Amino acid sequence: MKETAQILREKGLKVTPQRIAVYNMLCNTTEHPNAEMIYKSLEPTNPTMSLATVYKTLDFFKQLGLVQELNVGEPSSRYDAVVQCHPHTVCKVCGRVDDLHMEALIDVTKKLVPDLDFDVEMEQLILYGTCGECRKK
Ligand code: ZN
Ligand code: MN
Q: Residue 34 forms beta bridges with which residues?
């Protein structure tokens, strides 16, 4: 795997410890955190980083295609370092957002409607329901 600093540099971004921290955090989580969650998780190791910096950094990353923004119907967006289109599940009880690992659902629009008179640039498939953990309760 490429070093984070190199990835940022190749995208033309100035490399700062805070940018590296945000990108690494996103690469190492499956939780699809929002800016607030990223800020909280990095606060102990990056006490000088502000929430505003996290927002700004995420915005840079999104514009450069380093992360994808995921709107699951909450007030704040979630972020995913996996930028290819892939389906998600959202638990309406605990709020967790997970990847849905089902090959058949990847690029489902392109597969099912090849002659659609429409250029699909992005699609977002989200299944809402109750996760396994919450169903056990
Ligand atoms: Zn749940
Ligand atoms: Mn994902």
A: 78
